[in-house]
Specification:
Blueprint (H helix, E strand, L loop, with lengths): L2 H16 L3 H5 L6 E3 L5 E7 L4 E7 L2 H15 L29 H17 L1 H5 L10 H4 L1 H14 L4 H8 L4 H5 L6 H12 L3 E2 L10 H7 L1 E3 L2 E3 L2 H5 L17 E3 L4 H18 L5 H26 L3 H15 L5 H4 L20
Antiparallel strand pairs: 1-2, 2-3, 4-7, 5-6, 6-7
Helix pairs in contact: 1-3, 1-7, 10-15, 13-14
The structure holds iron/sulfur cluster (SF4).
């Protein structure tokens, strides 16, 4: 294999494995590969989009071997322009301004699509009846889809939201959720799992028996579930008591809602402190009553949690993690034109070396 072919193949492998933006891969420094004190490989890269330099990303050993193999091959490639010598993928051009930098997007794109076209025309691929008509099309195989697939793989491995956000180098997890598609089946299973802990404001268990009942009988509110029929019918837009859920007989919550309830208690407590001398006593009383109602809910939920077996607790933690990855607007994503995921086999976290 020629040096250029090996270079292009390595870029493809890194796009596939690392979930970085294409420009972040093209511009990797030659000494990108590092090791932590305990021997775990990671890379240093630069994000031109966010203007951040010297970012670190932990990687698999198999990907580290890919980089090492290319670094070894790179040593025998001559005539690299001195200005481009600091890049892992120096331009293959030997003359002109472009020879002084890393490989350009055009330099990689042209070959990538040629390669995809060749694969599509292979007799085995064309004859395979299991491949959909749009298999290996440009919309499916776009370079950015590798980044979406990386995020999806993390999600499928039940990676916690904060870790996905960090690995994707996003400022907020909301951005990361745009890269993840939670299948209806996974969502259904997660909801049914956490629903076993759904209680009302008196602490009595109220979990609907199945997903269909959940969809039919409740609507999500910022702090839990509402089962008031007219509000359910109006998709949450017709609350008769101004969303004072803590004091409402139709309010339900489960362990997935604990973080929001905690945050609401903190916000109400801050409001109470701010009310100080400027507010009438009835405002203080109202805030105190509301805080108490959510504290009671919190205590009841923690009591339900303490009754769970370690296995059930682990299953519910996994389900809660998955549900936290679903943005409120998730049902509309498909309509807005979801990205297609690339056909990768999920790698379980435990299999990483
Ligand atoms: S206050 Fe009651 S009716 Fe209104 S959203 Fe909350 S649970 Fe539903």
């Amino acid at each position: 294999m020629s040096g250029t072919s090996r270079c292009l193949q390595t870029i493809y492998q890194l796009l596939r494995d690392l979930g970085r933006r294409p420009t972040e891969i093209y511009s990797l420094p030659r000494d990108t590969l590092r090791e932590t004190d305990d021997g775990q490989p990671y890379i240093i890269y630069n994000s031109h989009k966010t203007d951040e330099y010297g970012l670190e990303l932990p990687i698999h050993r198999s990907t580290a071997r890919v980089i090492q193999t290319w670094q070894n091959a790179l040593q025998s490639i001559e005539d690299v322009h001195p200005d481009a010598a600091g890049y892992l993928f120096p331009s293959p051009r030997r003359y002109g301004p472009q020879s002084r930098t890393h490989i350009t997007p055009t330099g990689f794109h042209t070959n990538y699509w040629r390669w995809i076209d060749r694969i599509r025309k292979l007799p085995d691929v064309r004859a395979d009846p299991t491949k959909p008509a749009d298999f290996l099309t440009r919309s499916r195989m776009g370079l950015y889809n590798w980044r979406h697939t990386y995020a999806q793989r993390l999600s499928d491995n039940s990676t916690p939201p904060d870790v996905i956000q960090e690995l994707m180098n996003h400022k907020s997890f909301t951005t990361s959720t745009g890269y993840i598609k939670i299948t209806r089946e996974r969502q259904r299973q997660a909801i049914e799992t956490v629903n076993s802990t759904t209680i009302d404001r008196r602490g009595l268990l109220h979990g609907p028996k199945d997903y269909a009942a959940y969809v039919r009988e409740s609507v999500a509110t910022p702090l839990g579930l509402c089962t008031e029929p007219s509000n359910v019918k109006a998709a949450g837009q017709s609350c008769p008591v101004r969303n004072k859920c803590g004091g409402c007989q139709y309010y339900r919550a489960n362990l997935a809602h604990l973080p929001q309830i905690d945050a609401h208690i903190v916000a109400l407590t801050a409001d109470l402190a701010a009310a100080g001398d400027i507010a009438e006593p009835w405002i203080h009383q109202s805030l105190k009553a509301e805080i108490s109602s959510y504290k009671r809910m919190r205590t009841a939920l923690l009591k339900e949690k303490s009754k769970l077996t370690p296995e059930d607790k682990a299953a519910i933690d996994d389900a809660v993690t998955l549900l936290q990855q679903i943005p409120p607007a998730a049902p509309h994503l498909e309509a807005a034109g979801e990205r297609r995921m690339l056909p990768l086999t999920p790698v379980r976290t435990a299999d990483r070396t």
